[in-house]
Amino acid sequence: MAKARWYDLGQASILKNKPLRQIEVDGVKIALSFRKGVFAAVSGECNHVKGPLGKGSLKGDYIVCPWHSWKFHRKTGRGEAPYDKACLPRHEVKLKDGHLFVNLSASNRRVHESHPPHPLARPVSRAKGPIRVAGISTTAMEKMNPRYSTSEHLLKIALDAAAKAGAETRFIALNKLRFNACGGFYSKDEHACTWPCTYSQIDPKDQLSEIYEALIFWADAVIIATPIRWGNASSLYYKMAERLNCIENQMLIANRSLVKNKVISFIITGGQDNVQSVAGQMLAFFSSLGFQFPLFPFIGTSRGWHAEDMANNVEHVRRNRALHKEAKELALRTMNAALALLKQ
Ligand code: FES
Q1: What is the distance between the alpha carbons of residues 198 and 195, in angstroms, rounded to a whole number?
Q2: What is the position in ligand 1's atom list of the atom closest to the CA of 50?
Q3: Would residue 113 count as lying in a domain?
Q4: Whether residues 86 and 200 fall in one domain
Q5: What's the predicted TM-score (pTM) here?
Q6: Which atom from ligand 1 is nearest to the alpha carbon of 49?
């Protein structure tokens, strides 16, 4: 065991005021806890990706990591069952003259216990097969009585055209998936925003894996359809986009691009205006994730600011053969650009 290095943390009566705190002395990070009259200290670095355990919370005698909720016993350092072979370094504490001292030399080594890998954590590689086109509809609608959607209609026309041209296609209605809004893990620390996304790992009911599977693994080409809502893409589009931060963040923290040789395009329909602005935002965002674009990467339609007459907006798309043709051509451009990348 390393030589003891006792350090005076200060008056115990003051340190009792907080059940859990993060302390750093000479580069040693410690999670100091106080519960039921007893101080305890373990490493302040989580076994997962070094989250600051002392900034988490106490649940009984377990410290809950503030980044992804792994739990460790505050006295023994052991992980919560079934991960109780994992162990944090422990630090002795002692009271003397009303002061609390901690031994900066840990009394044991850190032990990692691997968690079963999340299915999305597998290596990114393209499975053999024909060209694959995923269509994601981001329009929001009431689930019990779904309505006609102009953007979704054009998306389905596009996917049909891709299928007729020999592609495998997959249609995903974002509205049917239950998924969390981004938890802002990136804003805690860039390393707290992980791949797979934290919510995919800790919430078995989160269904955004379907989107990650399509974008990262399955599709060669993607078409995203959105209505214009108050001059922007739909709220569901933004809810999804924020959850895709974990893809972009991998380039920053792990120097790896999860999106390889994929092409994306967009369908934007509005009862009112702002097609160009919505397209600009979507193009900028998906270029940051590593997607490429076909020639003329979006189609859009809007009858302008005064077009509040929804019935006419619907008819404008439902019966508009020129628009339907544009949707088909967009699908073929997107698909052909993806094919060209695959051939390279
Ligand atoms: S659970 Fe602690 S860093 Fe992820």
Answers
A1: 7
A2: 3
A3: no
A4: no
A5: 0.87
A6: 3
